[in-house]
Amino acid sequence: MAIVNVEKTSRIYRQDSVAVKALDDVSVAIEAGEFTTLVGPSGSGKTTLLNQIGALDEPTSGRIQIDGQEITGLNRRKRTALRLWKIGFVFQEYNLIGVLSAQENVEYVLMLRGMPFRERREKARQILAEVGLEGMEGRLPNELSGGQQQRVAVARAIVSQPAIVLADEPTANLDSKTGAALLDMMRRMNDEHGVTFVFSTHDPMVMERARRVVHLKDGRIEREEHRS
């Protein structure tokens, strides 16, 4: 079953009165359980495509469906609700809330969903243990290393069991050893729990671990690679 359906989407920006086509008639489907990465040089359109799948940006033309729901043309309130209930995000800057502990950061999405305190606390503890942060639940982000912060971000993204997790350059601020460990952890979650991941990246380590690599150039899909 396709979690994401992108159909003939284009995105045109205005830059100094000049029309710049960031995406040009792109179509792609992401199936449940995929571990896919979007790759390409700067300006290829990979981040724009990821942002459109994440309902952070609107296509100029075309259609996008997430988990069977048409998202093109949704108003701001409905797009916010879609992101809350359907999509997990992992960013290169971590985007943790500095005044909240690791556990409170992970709980935050569950709180927004209205989950009772005890239930969300238990879920947060379980997922933090699974990403290797047992015993660090009470630490603030500035008391954690970059790799540990990114593990908190991954835990927050998957704790609510979203339809899809989108990761934009998740290893960009990590050294190679830490980045490899983080990617291996996400690949394990994909293997063991069927979490659907889509990455946007320049990192060869991400490409090596992906089961599907979608190459973009000049706003179009140039080719794809499928791996076992």
Automatic annotation (TrEMBL):
Domain ABC transporter: 1-228
Subcellular location: Cell inner membrane
Membrane topology field: Multi-pass membrane protein
Pfam families with a match to the protein in the record: ABC_tran
Superkingdom of the source species: Bacteria
InterPro entries: AAA+_ATPase, ABC_transporter-like_ATP-bd, ABC_transporter-like_CS, ABC_transpr_LolD-like, MacB-like_ATP-bd, P-loop_NTPase
Signal peptide: none
One example GO MF annotation: transmembrane transporter activity
GO CC annotations on file: plasma membrane; transmembrane transporter complex
Keywords: ATP-binding, Nucleotide-binding, Transport
Family that this chain belongs to: Belongs to the ABC transporter superfamily. Macrolide exporter (TC 3.A.1.122) family.
Protein name, as recorded: ABC transporter ATP-binding protein
Species name: Marinobacter panjinensis
